[in-house]
Amino acid sequence: MTAKAPMNLRRLLIGSAVFRLALILYGEWQDAHMEVRYTDVDYLVFSDAASLMASGSSPYKRTTYRYSPLLAFLLLPNSVLHRSWGKFIFSASDLLVGYFIYKILKQRKVAEDLCLYSVMVWLLNPFTFTIGTRGNCEPIVCAMILWILICLMNGKIIQAAVWYGLVVHFRIYPIIYSLPIILVLNPRKSNAHRPSSQSGMEASTRYNLWTAAKSMFSKERVLFGLVSGGIFFLCTGLFFHLYQWEFLNEALLYHLTRADPRHNFSVYFYHIYLQYGRQLSLVEKLISFLPQSIVQLVLISTFAQDLPFCFFLQTVAFVAFNKVITAQYFVWFFCLLPLILPWSDMKLKWEGLGCVGLWMGAQLHWLLWGYLLEFKGQNVFLQLWMASLVFLLANASVMAVFIRLQRFSPIFLQIKVSDSKSGVKSQ
Amino acid sequence: MRIIGWICWRWKMGIIWKFFFCCCFIVVTLSIYGDCLSLEDCILKSYFSKNEVLTDSSFQDLLQDELSKFSCKLLPGDPNPQLTLSGLERRLIGEGSHRHLSSTIQLQVPPQSFPLQSCKLVMIERLPSGVFADPFELDHLFHHGAYAGIGVFGDTNLELPSVSSNRSAVEIHMNFEHSISSGAMSELGIRIDLPLHARYAPLHESGYSEVAFGTPDLLVSCSMEGSSGMRSCLIVPSHDSNRLRTDVVWKIPCGIMSHTNVVSVVTFATAFVSTLVIVFASVLYPKPR
């Protein structure tokens, strides 16, 4: 953050920082004096893994540690300085996300007040400030994603690729952004429609295909793919060398094959529980994979040029159609929501409030049945499953409303020129 | 370490106290805490060092071995010091998937001369398949002084349903409220609360799976003066089964097999309907040229 950042943003960030500091201190008090901890169970897992790493052991000796060793490395000072070091890092990332939102919107020529309101949507969201102060690491991932967007907007392909490789290693789910990034990197149109008096139709077709193939493997795309892939495999190779199959199983394969039968927001949980232990046929596996794949491909092909909006829709869909959904996944798209609001024709009354009400209502409905199952011991599996169906339909409906009311705003404008080269500039 | 050894020698503390004191300086592992770090002090650790899976019969065999190895008799022909378990009441407190198993234990110590010192109650809870104890939660409670020592052994995976998991067991050490001393009858009451969690149960048409708890193994571990210095020993309190109320059954909600087809069909149908909603919204999106 430069010294020239506007006073209101500075005040907003400072106020948010003070509030988060107060929450971290309160969390320490609650953990020490009350039976119910403020700190997330995951934070204790990270801390234990960091302690093991500090003592020279594998962080995977800690059961349920399913993250990159980089996270344990980041939290090494937990054992040396203070156990809340990690919470400060996560809350700082949370503030960085706020700053990046402002930076991206400013670069896209959004008015100052709209920028600040969008930043407030992130910084003042109760979900956001509790997640970092309770010790959840998702704000780091959000900050990396937004930084990648900034790098892409400024033409820093290699830097974007390095961070992209890192974030995919860290959390895997950002792999869904690979195709839209590739598509947006070189939006040059094929010159195949230039009139050609000498060549016949056949030659023109060959030229179209050749040009299309050439543009598919443009320098920027190849560079991005090679660098990000290289970083990902470098990290994977390095940590495999250090921690062997434990790393691969816990940090990578577990997430790719995870099918938790325990109740969660996903529509698939009860199906997985009822089928647990039974070998699913290839058809059954494909059927569960198809909705996610179709939605992702359709969203990418329609919205890739409006990269933040594409990321947002893809993330909501990815979470909604996933086999396991926990509340911490929501922050993956909460950080992208402020980036799309300035181009939305959605009015707060009543479309905005309607979407919030529908989404929150579906969630609360699920939580009610979840409470009866888990804390009252009532057999409400069927009702809970139906609540998860309602939640999926609510997500799909909210997405449809967002799509209907969004003004398409490509992240790059294409300059049409009469010679053979086409160029791009930031919007 | 020299200072610790000097203190232990100076006070003629038994092996139990030496390890307990030393444990304060040892980083606890994930599943055992307090004075349960040595084979002599933790019966379950001894069991799981030789067995992978908990079975009642093999555990009973090991327990008999431990009792004969660590007998509290001064001489081979002497009778065991008498302790009586005058009452045991067990209750499951709470609702839902997270409850406390409460055990209230009444012990009677006869008034005759009793050569034993520094006694503590050892309770071994062999958990039935379908419930588990969270080692990290117990660590938190241990550090709040709830137990003198605690160990969780066996399958401590917190996430697996019960069809994919093995049994686990918990060994709890509790100091007595009043020390056992010669010449005085003591009636000791000890309450142990053990937080437990239900695993996802196998499917059943009734919608509930019943998990029954057995009687815990209750022992008293003491220090006694032996021929080669202080050593630890184990006593099994005698008891009248009629005075023990130990039936505890936990009804855990479970999935119903007959739901399978409907759930699968409707789940995938809903997923496809949601897909169509998003696809149509995208296709109909008026993108400017």
UniProtKB/TrEMBL annotation, chain A:
Pathway the protein contributes to: Glycolipid biosynthesis; glycosylphosphatidylinositol-anchor biosynthesis
Highest taxon, organism lineage: Eukaryota
Protein name in UniProt: GPI mannosyltransferase 1
Listed transmembrane segments: 12-29, 84-102, 114-132, 222-243, 316-341, 353-372, 384-403
The UniProt record lists the keyword Cytoplasm: no
Bilayer topology term: Multi-pass membrane protein
Pfam annotation, one family: Mannosyl_trans
Location within or outside the cell: Endoplasmic reticulum membrane
E.C. code: 2.4.1.-
Stated role: Catalytic subunit of the glycosylphosphatidylinositol-mannosyltransferase I complex which catalyzes the transfer of the first mannose, via an alpha-1,4 bond from a dolichol-phosphate-mannose (Dol-P-Man) to the glucosaminyl acyl phosphatidylinositol (GlcN-(acyl)PI) intermediate to generate alpha-D-Man-(1->4)-alpha-D-GlcN-(1->6)-(1-radyl,2-acyl-sn-glycero-3-phospho)-2-acyl-inositol and participates in the sixth step of the glycosylphosphatidylinositol-anchor biosynthesis.
GO molecular function: alpha-1,4-mannosyltransferase activity; GPI mannosyltransferase activity
Record GO cellular component, one term: endoplasmic reticulum membrane
Keywords: Endoplasmic reticulum, Glycosyltransferase, GPI-anchor biosynthesis, Membrane, Transferase, Transmembrane, Transmembrane helix
GO biological process per UniProt: GPI anchor biosynthetic process
The UniProt record lists the keyword Hydrolase: no
Family as reported in the entry's similarity comment: Belongs to the PIGM family.
InterPro entries for the chain: PIG-M
Automatic annotation (TrEMBL), chain B:
Mode of membrane association: Single-pass membrane protein
Organism: Linum tenue
UniProt keyword annotations, A-Z: Endoplasmic reticulum, Glycoprotein, GPI-anchor biosynthesis, Membrane, Transmembrane, Transmembrane helix
Protein name: Phosphatidylinositol-glycan biosynthesis class X protein
Pathway this chain belongs to: Glycolipid biosynthesis; glycosylphosphatidylinositol-anchor biosynthesis
Signal keyword on record: no
Positions of transmembrane segments: 262-285
InterPro entries noted in UniProt: PIG-X/PBN1, PIGX
Pfam name, any one: PIG-X
Family, similarity comment: Belongs to the PIGX family.
Subcellular location: Endoplasmic reticulum membrane
A GO cellular-component term linked to this record: endoplasmic reticulum membrane
GO biological process terms on file: GPI anchor biosynthetic process
